[in-house]
């Protein structure tokens, strides 16, 4: 049976990680996959996370199965992170959350749910976006349409294009939005623009789906939830795929969450029972360690304060490296204006490098980035930034 199967293309992001691992040139630099690195180029386990894990290992008494929706304390803490403590949605039990296998797992549950239970046929996705968005919705058989997002001449949000394209989205269509730190552009709507979009969603009857994987990386945990909370004010139904991979540094523990918000508690419970059926047929129930760790950190005021400080450190380091990157490019003789990079949010910068320039960086200089021109600013350190900028200037 298998001899006729065609090889699948390498994943545009995870495939890079494999190629980087195999790279033997010692000067190699990885600006591909979205992982945080500290000033030493390491991806450490945050101290608050390590402390929670240590406590967990000492205290846990069983490896019994979790329920289909996972660790209850984790799901409750997730809702508080998304909407804010004591939000009306939480008080009225209009939200239901299931722990998921990372943000990708949550997106897949959301896609299956939208297709099977809401009979949604079409999803609107920003252009550009994280490549897996398209693949996930195609995998459930939905039509993927894109809306303009990025103006490459001004390196900013193509607001008019976005509004023109989303005006065509119909009632019942899923509209996918990046909660903050848009991947790959690093450009987010302003609060005023979020308000307009939230209003448009309510008027037109879209089913909004937030992909919220970088909370805390733009301006802070609360600030970064502005867009989602603006939607929550005006829209009675929402889907959210969240992830703690980045802000807790728990990448390989696969800590994500699928949340649905309904008009009232009774509908939420009914709809959520269907989401649980979807989960049961995919992976039955999730793994405990990562989610229990997150729950412990978020429930313990000292650990939470320590974690928030560590998250602030990560965000500030990325901001510092953005400025250094722009300054060093200038010092190395770049004549183009790269100042827009300082204004972008989160780990990524949409550098404007072409696919050919990205290929040359890899082939000639062992520098790995995504072919869309997305570079991970968190991969820059004082040790590699000069080499990186000199190489970029050579390929420009
Ligand atoms: C990324 O965009 O690099 C991350 O979200 C990792 C991934 O799964 O692609």
UniProtKB/TrEMBL annotation:
<feature type="domain" description="Aminotransferase class I/classII large">
    <location>
        <begin position="27"/>
        <end position="392"/>
    </location>
</feature>
<dbReference type="InterPro" id="IPR015421">
    <property type="entry name" value="PyrdxlP-dep_Trfase_major"/>
</dbReference>
<comment type="subunit">
    <text>Homodimer.</text>
</comment>
<dbReference type="GO" id="GO:0030170">
    <property type="term" value="F:pyridoxal phosphate binding"/>
</dbReference>
<keyword id="KW-0175">Coiled coil</keyword>
<dbReference type="GO" id="GO:0033585">
    <property type="term" value="P:L-phenylalanine biosynthetic process from chorismate via phenylpyruvate"/>
</dbReference>
<dbReference type="GO" id="GO:0042802">
    <property type="term" value="F:identical protein binding"/>
</dbReference>
<dbReference type="InterPro" id="IPR015422">
    <property type="entry name" value="PyrdxlP-dep_Trfase_small"/>
</dbReference>
<dbReference type="GO" id="GO:0005829">
    <property type="term" value="C:cytosol"/>
</dbReference>
<keyword id="KW-0663">Pyridoxal phosphate</keyword>
<dbReference type="Pfam" id="PF00155">
    <property type="entry name" value="Aminotran_1_2"/>
</dbReference>
<keyword id="KW-0032">Aminotransferase</keyword>
<dbReference type="InterPro" id="IPR000796">
    <property type="entry name" value="Asp_trans"/>
</dbReference>
<dbReference type="InterPro" id="IPR004839">
    <property type="entry name" value="Aminotransferase_I/II_large"/>
</dbReference>
<feature type="coiled-coil region">
    <location>
        <begin position="304"/>
        <end position="331"/>
    </location>
</feature>
<keyword id="KW-0808">Transferase</keyword>
<protein>
    <recommendedName>
        <fullName>Aminotransferase</fullName>
        <ecNumber>2.6.1.-</ecNumber>
    </recommendedName>
</protein>
<dbReference type="InterPro" id="IPR015424">
    <property type="entry name" value="PyrdxlP-dep_Trfase"/>
</dbReference>
<comment type="similarity">
    <text>Belongs to the class-I pyridoxal-phosphate-dependent aminotransferase family.</text>
</comment>
<dbReference type="GO" id="GO:0004838">
    <property type="term" value="F:L-tyrosine-2-oxoglutarate transaminase activity"/>
</dbReference>
<dbReference type="InterPro" id="IPR004838">
    <property type="entry name" value="NHTrfase_class1_PyrdxlP-BS"/>
</dbReference>
């Amino acid at each position: 049976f298998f001899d006729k199967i065609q090889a699948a293309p390498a994943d545009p992001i995870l495939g890079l990680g494999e190629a980087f691992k195999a790279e033997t040139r010692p000067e190699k630099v990885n600006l591909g996959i979205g992982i945080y690195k500290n000033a030493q180029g390491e991806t450490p386990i945050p101290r608050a996370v390590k402390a929670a894990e240590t406590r967990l290992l000492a205290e846990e008494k069983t490896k019994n199965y979790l329920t289909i929706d996972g660790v209850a304390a984790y799901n409750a803490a997730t809702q508080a992170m998304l909407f804010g403590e004591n939000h009306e949605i939480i008080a009225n039990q209009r939200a239901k959350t299931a722990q998921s296998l990372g943000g990708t797992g949550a997106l897949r549950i959301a896609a299956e749910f939208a297709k099977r239970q809401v009979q949604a046929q079409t999803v609107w996705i920003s252009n550009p976006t994280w490549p897996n968005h398209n693949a996930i919705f195609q995998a459930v058989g939905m039509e993927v349409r894109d809306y303009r997002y990025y103006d490459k001449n001004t390196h900013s949000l193509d607001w008019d294009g976005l509004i023109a394209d989303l005006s065509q989205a119909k009632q019942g269509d899923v509209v996918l939005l990046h909660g903050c730190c848009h991947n790959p552009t690093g450009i987010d709507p302003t609060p005023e623009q979020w308000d307009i979009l939230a209003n448009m969603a309510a008027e037109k009857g879209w089913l909004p789906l937030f992909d919220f994987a970088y909370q805390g990386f733009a301006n802070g945990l609360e600030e970064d939830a502005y867009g989602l909370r603006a939607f929550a004010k005006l829209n009675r139904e929402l889907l959210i795929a969240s992830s703690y991979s980045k802000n807790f540094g728990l990448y390989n523990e696969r800590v994500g969450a699928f949340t649905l918000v309904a008009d009232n508690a009774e509908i939420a419970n009914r709809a959520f029972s269907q989401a649980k059926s979807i989960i049961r047929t995919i992976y039955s129930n999730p793994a405990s360690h990562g989610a229990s760790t997150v729950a412990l950190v978020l429930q313990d005021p000292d650990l939470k304060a320590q974690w928030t400080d560590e998250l602030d450190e990560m965000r500030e380091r990325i901001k510092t490296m953005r400025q250094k990157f722009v300054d060093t490019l200038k010092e190395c003789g770049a004549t183009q204006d790269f100042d827009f990079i300082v204004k972008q949010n989160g780990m990524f910068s949409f550098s404007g490098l072409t696919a050919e320039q990205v290929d040359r960086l890899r082939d000639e200089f062992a520098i790995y980035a995504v072919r869309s021109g997305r570079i991970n600013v968190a991969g820059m350190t004082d040790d590699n930034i000069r080499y990186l900028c000199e190489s970029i200037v050579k390929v420009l």
